[in-house]
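go over this:
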Amino acid sequence: MKTMLSAGIKSLLLSVTAAGLLAGCATSGNPKDPIEGFNRAMFAFNDGLDSAIVKPVATGYEAVLPAPVRTGVTNFFSNIEDLLIGVNNLLQGKGSAAISDLGRVVINSTIGILGTFDIASDIGLEKHDEDFGQTFGRWGVGSGAYVVIPVFGPRTARDTVGLVLDVAADPLTHLGAGDGRDVLLALRAVNDRANLLPADKVVDEAALDKYSYIRDGYLQRRRNLIHDGNAPREPEADAEQVERPVRAEADPGKPRAGAEAAAAEAPVLMARTEPAETK
């Protein structure tokens, strides 16, 4: 498994390099998606893999385990995630948020019984959503080309580099095989996909072009997250905004609607996702 993780990190780095090289000879005409042909092929591969294997397993998982048990599993992995969220908030200069994240880990790991109960949210400690891709964005690193990575799904070049660090810093990947690492990684992947099952129907019904729908939703959501819900107006939208008021961005601290969650995350087969805000 450790060899597979190492190979996975190398493949992510190769994807970033490939995206940069392919962007130089792009012909799609879309500056946000210069390698659209390659991305659509990878999207079709991921969608087929999801339909054939991942979704059926997640559906069975949801059918077998009662909702309270699945909620406990989600909270357990969310508690581990709060460690990295705190690190990223600290790197972004958000000291108070980082302290809050650490407080969540301490409270949920003890009173919440290893994180299976989200006591921290009950007492007012907000759940944040940060990763290394967002940290790079806060530092001023541009998003780069949109790229669809096999298995991991939609990213930008910047978020792909961030994903490499997310995987490398993930506490679960540093466990030994005898510590249940493989079981935990598989359980997290299946649980994440099961949490997205309600969004599948939304995407299927709303999207005339599923690929572009998910791409645009992903890019909009990532921009919103990097700016903590206060994203500046995009330059190309200025002319439209003269006649049409700016629509308020969603509050990243609240649960996302099904359409937004589906557009941003439904095709992400094995990537970590934001857990549902349930206790």
Remarks:
- The beta strands are 146-149, 153-156.
